[in-house]
Amino acid sequence: MKETVIKSRDNPLAKRARAVRDRKLEGLIFIEGVRLCEEALGASVIIEDVLCTERIASDERGASLLGALSPVCERITFLSDQVFASVSDTKTPQGIICIAKRPRTGPELLVVTDGRVPLMIIMHRVNNPANAGAILRAAEAAGATAAITTDGSTDLFSTKALRGAMGSSFRLPLWTGAGFWEIIEWCAARDIRTVCADVRSKRAHTEIDWTVPRALIVGAEAAGLEQVEVAAADEALRIPMRAPVDSLNVAVASAVILYEAARQRSESAK
User: Fold this and answer.
1) How far apart are CA 141 and CA 54, in angstroms?
2) For residue 1, is pLDDT > 50?
3) What's the 3-state SS for the chain?
4) How far is CA 126 from the centre of its chain?
5) Which site among 12, 51, 63, 151 is 20 to 30 Å from 71 CA-CA?
6) Does residue 213 surpass a pLDDT of 90?
7) What's the pLDDT tens digit per position in 154-177?
8) Nearest residue to 143 via CA among 210, 234, 204
9) Domains of the chain, with CATH numbers?
10) Measured in Å, how far apart are the chain's first and last C-alpha atoms?
11) What is residue 224's predicted lDDT score, i.e. its pLDDT?
12) What is the C-alpha to C-alpha distance for residues 6 and 183, in angstroms, rounded to an integer?
């Protein structure tokens, strides 16, 4: 590991980091903050570069993280506070950034090998990265086995989505950029019953059998799913709400439904 100190914003490493942050370099992701860097390291994400300030190196937790990163990354580079601020994606930087290889995604990763019944979340045109990250976090917490995003959805490895997921993006098997009808066919071929969230459905989310292989489909924050897409799912559900509330944030709705699935699966396992 070769250590250098960067005091110019025009340094090639600083420029490269900003390009990764702004998603101008394919195949790399921008991971910022102690906790998120720890999660990436623990999930064996391939880390190329570490950019940090002297402040993080003087902190006990930060120093421990740098020590763990040293054997697995190509280099650790120290930046002045001013240069780091020009690279950071947050208003109050903690002082550490990892530039890493974009984790692999695809349908081949979704195969369940630990005996669990498949439970997947499909995000169709969900375009808010904070919502997508929160959905991933809730999905992992509720015991989902995988997550899928369709073409046109937000990037699950953008900085905001990564912060919202807080490490779940690195652990949960993912398939990104899939076609909607491709997913429907893929699930049908594997006897995974699809169920969509639709406010017009007469069945509550508690009336769905979640003990069988399932894939929950949620739509865009504003428009939801088109009628032809609702019709393509095996079943539809709604979350009962007291008036005058008639809708929930997509991440909240996903969490409510996934935890009902977790409850039913826990009960059936007793």
Assistant:
1) 35
2) no
3) CCCEEECCCCCHHHHHHHHHHCCCCCCEEEEECHHHHHHHHHCCCCEEEEEECHHHHHCHHHHHHHHHHCCCCCEEEEECHHHHHHHCCCCCCCCEEEEEECCCCCHHHHCCCCCCCCEEEEECCCCCHHHHHHHHHHHHHCCCCEEEEECCCCCCCCHHHHHHHCCHHHHCCEEEEECHHHHHHHHHHCCCEEEEECCCCCCEHHHCCCCCCEEEEECECCCECCHHHHHHCCEEEECCCCCCCCCCCHHHHHHHHHHHHHHHHHHHHC
4) 12
5) 12
6) yes
7) 999 999 999 999 999 999 999 999
8) 210
9) 4-101 (3.30.1330.30), 107-269 (3.40.1280.10)
10) 52
11) 84
12) 46
- Residue type at position 185: E
Q: What is the pLDDT of residues 16-45, one digit of tens each?
A: 999 999 999 999 999 999 999 999 999 999
> What is the average per-residue pLDDT within 48-73?
94
CB 35 within 8 A of CB 166: yes
The string of pLDDT tens digits covering residues 240-253 is 999 999 889 999 99
- pLDDT, residue 269, reads 84
Which tokens hold the place of 121?
Answer: 């979340």
Buried b (16+ CB within 10 A) or exposed e, 122-157: bbbbbebbbbbbbbbbbbbebebbbbbbbeebbbbb
Q: How far apart are CA 194 and CA 27, in angstroms?
A: 31
pLDDT at residue 4, rounded to an integer = 66
Question: Which residue, chain included where needed, has tokens 């997509």?
Answer: 250
